[in-house]
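Entry 14. Structure prediction run on the chain below.
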Amino acid sequence: MGLLHCGAFQPLRTLADPAVAPYRIEPVYLPEADPAQLADLDVLIVGDRLHQGQLARFVPAILAALQGPGKTVIVLGENKVEQWLPGVGYSFRPTVFWMWRTGEDNGTRLRLPEDPLWEFFTPWSVSWHHHGLLHPRPGARSLVVMEEDGAESGSLLYVDEVNQPARLLVTTMDPVYHHGSGFMPGASQLLYSLLRWVTATHAPRA
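Output returned:
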C-alpha cells in the first residue's frame, strides 16, 4: 500500500500517526519518486491536495494501475480528477467548513445502505465536509451524495468496480489534510475507515 504525497506537513503527520503504522504504508514522495514504482503497489492512495504539476507526472502510472486486476486505487479530494480520470465530471460547490461544529445541513446524504462498504464507515466519517460534486461513469456506486432542493446533484464518494479492471474509490473529501492538521475528527474517522476497508476487502493479485 502506498500514499502519494508532496511532503507537506499534513501527510507527514498522518504517516507518523501510530494508528496508521500497522498498515505499513509506503510513502511515495512525488518530487523524488519514479512513477514506475507504482507498478509494485497493490493498493494506491492518491493523497488529497497534491501539487498539480507533480501529480501530472504520475497520472499515466495511476491510469496504468487502474488496468491491473486485483488492484485498488483510492483518489482523495482536491485533485482535479475531472481533468485526468476518464469519464468523470465535476461541479463546484462552496465548502461548509464548520458544519461539524454548527450542525448546519450541507446536503450530504448516504445511499445504498446494504452496500458492504458501510460495514467500515460511519455516517460521521463521511459527513464533515467536501469540496464539490463528482459525476462518475455509469455503473459506479455512489455511496455518499449531495442533495439539493430534494434531488441528488452529484456524488461525494463513489466506488467503481465495473469500468476498469481495478477497484476505484474517489471522493471530494480530504481526510489526509485534515487529519494531519489535527482539527477535524470526522476526517480522522474517514482516514481510518478507508484503511480498514481496503485492508479487509482487498483481493491481492493471484
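The first helix runs from residue 9 to 15.
Filed with the rest of this week's runs.
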